[in-house]
Amino acid sequence: MFARLANGNVAPKRVIEGQATNLSRTMHGIAYDAIHDEIVIPVALGGAVLVFKADAAGEVPPLRAIQGTRTRLVRPHTVAVDPVNNEILTADPSMRAVVVFERTANGNVAPKRVISGPATGLLDIVGLDVDPIRNVIVAASRKGNGDKVGIFVFDRLANGDVAPKQFIGGPNSKLAHFRQVTIDPATGNIFLAQQNTRMKQMEAYVLDKPREGFKAKERDDDEDDSDSGRLDQMGFIAVYGPDDNGDIPPRAIIKGPGIRLAGAAGVALNPRKKEIITVGGNGFQTFLLPDFFKPLRKLGGTAQP
Amino acid sequence: MRRIAVTVAAALVLLFAGSQPSPQARAADSRDPIEDLLAEDCVDGTAMAIAQAASRLPQEGGVASDEWPPHAIGGVIPPIRSVSDPFPTFDGIALDTENDRVILSDENRHSLLVYARSAGGSSSDPTEPVQWVFGPKTRLGYIAGVEVDPRRREFYTVNNDSGDLMTVFSYDDHGNVQPRRTLSLPHQSWDVSLAPRRDEIVISVQQSNALSFYKRGATGTAAPIRTIRGLATELEDPHGTYFDEAHNEIITANHGNWTQIRPYTPYDPIVTDVGEYKSGAFHPSAITFHAADASGDVSPLRTIEGDLTGLNWPMGIDVDLTHDEIAVANYGDSSVRIFRRGDKGSVQPVRVLRGALTQIVGPVSVAIDTKHDELWVANYGDHTAVVFPRTASGNVRPKRTIRNAPKDTPTCGFTNASAAAYDSKRDEILVPN
After folding, report:
1. pLDDT (tens digit, 9 = 90+) per residue, B57-70?
2. How far is B156 from chain A, CA to nearest CA, in Å?
3. Whole-number mean pLDDT of chain B?
4. In this predicted model, what pLDDT tens digit does every residue of A22-48 receive, in sequence order?
5. B275: Cβ contacts below 8 Å, ≥ 6 apart
6. 3-state helix, strand, coil in chain B (%, to 5)
7. Distance CA B109, CA B105 (A)
């Protein structure tokens, strides 16, 4: 946990870590519940979602842990919290599913709803948020090389094998290798952190088995996941309106060398101060952009509302 | 019902907080709102100019390139604040007492630093490495464990993330150089240990809870010659591993996290036929001992595990075959714990190095030097590696310190972060590691 005004090479104000926390050193999501003052974290390597008091520090156990056979969790990657409807949502790329629990769920409990199946289009789900005002769930999901790489918008109460009500993706979107997604509750604007504009590279193994047909990169200048330094391939923060749909470019963007330093894997918002926090690699950066917190002009429109 | 309605109303108020102007803000409408936001934080004029430019469309003199995305606001924008650590952070360590070198991996800047074995002292300045392998040609990513082959004058490291490779460099390599050879590995491989007589290496793999064995000189996409993996193995989020040829054992430090992982990447099909579903579990940290010839889902020969051990996120390990001891970098309580090699069950360590005088902060790896009777500890949390007498115990000062940054340089303490959240109550930014 860092002070919002931290700048430069600074140590965190406090850290939650150690065996008793049940955290691991592999965690790809986090959500803060401002109403109940709690932090929600998925533990990918423990098949669990943990909830901590937001002022926790040091080696403290979680308040609650969602884990066990009834949960169906395998490798939860990202989380969101809906404090209005009292729900915790997690996305599990191994399950290919968005899974919804009671906010106060603890132990071996069944999910309330699961969004999963061929109609959903979900595969490698790396980002998730919920908008209790517009009643939607937004998931960022990737595929290797094909369609349906992008932002999936579902009705908040969707359950089972259902199609998304909106989808943002396609060649004009340049969406490819992204991660965290978050929503500004006031406007419904959707913010997505994209690491670069190339599809995620195929891994050499399927778990512990060599992948058939995998070709090892032989030179340092082959295409890979890394940031090449080219402006058109660098990552960015993309912003969309709540009704956006289809193969469209971002409506607002942060790009360039400034965002490159962070790598743009995660994105968080401070609506009161109109700040966008991006995290990636070994650092985070803060951008002050008040206009990103206003309703975006309608596509094809000429005036800002 | 009323309680629910009140809760929902309160929630909506909180969610919208910040988006609606306060009465004071409305009264000050004549001022630029950006100016107000910055004034509260005492931010300088440069930040103000950046924010003002970013709010304009390209045709209005904003900073966006109009080529892509068309008609978007924003663009090429510098941040108003940036937190990062520009210095290396030590992770893995390997000691070569034949050629008097110590090799340390740097997870932060993706480099390998090689020092003279006798380097370090009491200086507050960074210690000069004799070699520094660093740059895009090296293909080093978020590297972790390090191994050394003194006879061939080579050193190995493993990309824990961003590349899934083992890279091998020579003692003659320096700067931005291509590795002498590479081997593709499973994702989240953490440590590598060499068995010179068998001519094999063993790799620990976090996410698949496995130990994979390869021929020493394997390259490209060579498959493992055997793998230890499965529920019976008690491998649970394995980190440091040591190939003990003398006793035909593989010794591994485990964090205790377990899940029945399935294929999940964008290139994998949906897998539903996984047999019986076993849920995730948190177990205590443990040191496991497996037969070096084992393959498949086999039980450990013995484990060191339990309250007396004090194991807490054990990372790198090293084995002292002369004195029959195991040293463990115990990240969770910033200690180094020494066990007897033959220990099993819930046993107390024979020695513990811990306390403010030791300068052990977030240790990730250890190395025992029986030739010079020293114990090395690589700190992730403090830009240092510290060297003790081999039998040091308790809260004692190190003999000497190797620094990769000036003394008292802080470190952010996280690597390869993928998410963030904002805590509006404490005005804090939350980053999971």
Report:
1. 544 545 555 578 88
2. 18
3. 89
4. 999 889 999 999 999 999 999 999 999
5. none
6. 15, 40, 50
7. 9
Q: What are the extents of the domains in chain B?
A: 2-71, 90-261+287-403
CB B323 within 8 A of CB B340: no
C-beta neighbour count of A282 within 10 angstroms: 25
In this predicted structure, the answer to whether residue A220 has a pLDDT above a threshold of 70 is no
Chain B residue with CA closest to A240: the answer is B72
CB within 8 Å: A48 and B280: yes
Residue B245 reports pLDDT greater than 50: yes
CA atoms within 13 A on the CB side of B389: 8
CB within 8 Å: B262 and A75: yes
Q: Are B94 and B112 in contact (CB under 8 A)?
A: no
Name B155's bridge partners.
Answer: B148, B169
Q: How many CB atoms lie within 10 A of CB B282?
A: 24
Kindly state the helix (H) or strand (E) to which residue B4 belongs, with its residue range. helix B2-16
Query: Do the Cβ atoms of A289 and B182 come within 8 Å?
Result: no
Q: Do A19 and B312 touch (CB under 8 A)?
A: yes
How far is Cα A123 from Cα A141, in angstroms, rounded to an integer?
6
Return phi, psi of residue B10, to 5°: -60, -40
B352: amino acid identity, one letter: V
What pLDDT digit, counting tens, does each position of B396-412 carry?
A: 999 999 999 999 999 99
pLDDT tens digit string along A138-170? 999 998 766 689 999 999 999 999 999 999 999
Radius of gyration of chain B (CA): 26
Residues of B in contact with A277 (CB under 8 A): 420, 422, 429
For the residues B123-148, what does the mean pLDDT come to?
A: 96
Matching residue, tokens 């009500």: A165
CB contact set of B380 (below 8 Å; sequence gap of 6+): B89, B90, B91, B107, B331, B361, B362, B363, B364, B411, B413
Superfamily of domain B90-261+287-403: YVTN repeat-like/Quinoprotein amine dehydrogenase (2.130.10.10)
Summarize the confidence of residues B274-301 as an average pLDDT.
95
